[in-house]
Design goal:
Layout: H1 15-35, H2 44-56, H3 60-82, H4 86-92, H5 95-112, H6 119-136, E1 139-140, E2 143-144, H7 151-165, H8 170-200, H9 205-222, H10 225-237
Antiparallel strand pairs: 1-2
Helix pairs in contact: 1-6, 1-8, 1-9, 2-3, 3-6, 5-6, 5-9, 7-8
Length: 238
């Protein structure tokens, strides 16, 4: 009798990993908007609009709280692209896992920082790691998606719904289901982030870090790192 896998696969494009990352993405936007000057960690479209509004009002001083997260977001994308270089990939062994670990560490540090630390420091850190997540985990199954913003996912889900119900496309039905799950996960994350931030304050970000550590452990297992270490120890013991 064959044993069944109880723990789901968490490859880089799996739906299960997408759910966890979408939860984190929604959580961080709710967290930063409520506790950090109404700035979005992930949705740079919102920051660009708010920047333009402040500039139109001549409010140059407040404009900086929107400029710096945008710059941090760009820097995160550049770093994520850099670690894909063949030489760095050999050193890191799994650059995707390294990105998740870095994001986890940053979120843990953010939760430790006292409330006296300027909000801009926190939003810049979160924007940086969020952009690396976006740039690194880009596919849901075989389709492109976004784990930290939902506008594009809504568009794709709507197109899939049309193909599924009007054209009776079976693949589109699968696509629709998966994207609806991601959209729901993002919304749930934003709700959880908002409620927990109001209840527990700035340290509620550790909840998002907890979700990430689950993703890291399961992704690590899926890639076979545990098995390779066990085999290595067995070979050395012979």
């Amino acid at each position: 009798m064959k044993s069944k896998h109880i723990i789901p696969s968490l490859s880089s494009n799996s739906v299960y990993l997408g759910i966890l990352l979408a939860l984190v993405g929604g959580f961080l936007d709710g967290y930063t908007f409520i506790s950090r000057d109404g700035v979005f960690a992930n949705a740079q479209t919102g920051n660009v609009v708010l920047l333009a509004i402040n500039l139109s009002n001549g409010d140059w001083r407040n404009s900086i709280i929107y400029i710096l997260p945008i710059l941090a977001f760009i820097m995160g994308v550049l770093v994520a692209e850099s670690v894909k270089h063949p030489r760095l990939r050999e050193v890191l062994y799994s650059y995707r896992r390294s990105i998740l670990i870095l994001e986890f560490v940053v979120l843990m540090i953010v939760g430790i920082l006292p409330t006296s630390v300027p909000n801009i420091v926190v939003t810049v850190c979160i924007s940086f790691v969020s952009s690396m997540q976006i740039s690194t985990f880009t596919h849901l199954d075989k389709w492109t998606y976004n784990s930290t913003m939902t506008t594009g996912n809504l568009r794709i889900a709507s197109q899939a719904a049309y193909s599924a119900f009007i054209n009776h496309n079976k693949e589109a039905r699968t696509k629709l289901k998966e994207f609806l799950v991601i959209i729901l996960s993002f919304s749930l994350g934003a709700l959880l982030g908002s409620i927990s931030t109001k209840t527990f304050g700035v340290r509620s970000i550790w909840i998002a870090a907890g979700v990430l550590i689950i993703a890291i452990i399961l992704y690590h297992k899926d890639k076979g790192y545990f098995k390779s270490k066990i085999r290595g120890r067995q070979e050395r013991g012979k």
